[in-house]
Amino acid sequence: MKLARFFLTGIFFGIVLTKAEAVSWYRIYEMFHFQSFHMYGIIGMALFTGIVGLQMIKKFKIKDYKGLPIHIIEKERGFWRYIIGGILFGLGWALVGSCPGPIFILLGTGTYAIAVVLIGALLGTYIYGLLKDKLPH
Predict the structure, then answer these.
(1) What is the dihedral of CA 40, 45, 51, 57, to 10 degrees?
(2) Among 93, 91, 83, 133, which Cα is nearest to 117's?
(3) How many Å apart are CA 90 and CA 98, to the nearest integer?
(4) What is the pLDDT, as a whole number, of residue 65?
């Protein structure tokens, strides 16, 4: 029961993403063809919300749900790894027609073909786990 609020938050978030058409293949197609601002607006708002949220956590020393302080570890500066990672992520997103985030939302809406993407994501994560010590970070 302790995790019920997180489960309900996830359901609410799924409903919001579905109603905002953020999980729509057509909207993603429009975005990658620069035909609509819709998805860029959603992504921009998420970026803005994340930046403001992190700054609030740092400034007001907000604690997690267990009452423990939240420690945000500074990332090592880099350029090429973010460019290469972003390109790979974008290519995967464009090929699949969906960001990995709403895979379960799409399953819930009856888009069962996304199960192939879920299997690929799990397989890719497993392979990364096996190779992570050999990869440059």
Answers:
(1) -150
(2) 93
(3) 10
(4) 86
Q: In terms of C-beta density within 10 A (0-12 exposed, 13-18 middle, 19 or more buried), how is residue 120 classed?
A: middle
In this prediction, residue 75 carries a pLDDT of 84
Residues 6+ apart with CB under 8 A from 99: 28, 93
- Gap between the Cα atoms of 117 and 136, Å rounded: 26
All residue ranges of the chain with pLDDT < 50 are none
Given a contact cutoff of 8 angstroms between Cβ atoms, the answer to whether 4 and 83 are in contact is no
What's the Cα-to-Cα distance from 109 to each of 17, 41, 72, rounded to whole Å?
12, 23, 35
Cα 82 from chain centroid (whole Å):
15
Q: Under a CB-based contact definition with an 8 Å cutoff, are residues 114 and 98 in contact?
A: yes
Listed residue (69, 68, 65) closest to 3, CA to CA: 65
Among 22, 20, 2, CA closest to 102: 22
In the chain, the largest separation of any two C-alpha atoms, in whole Å, equals 45
118 CB-near residues (< 8 Å, 6+ apart): 103, 104, 107
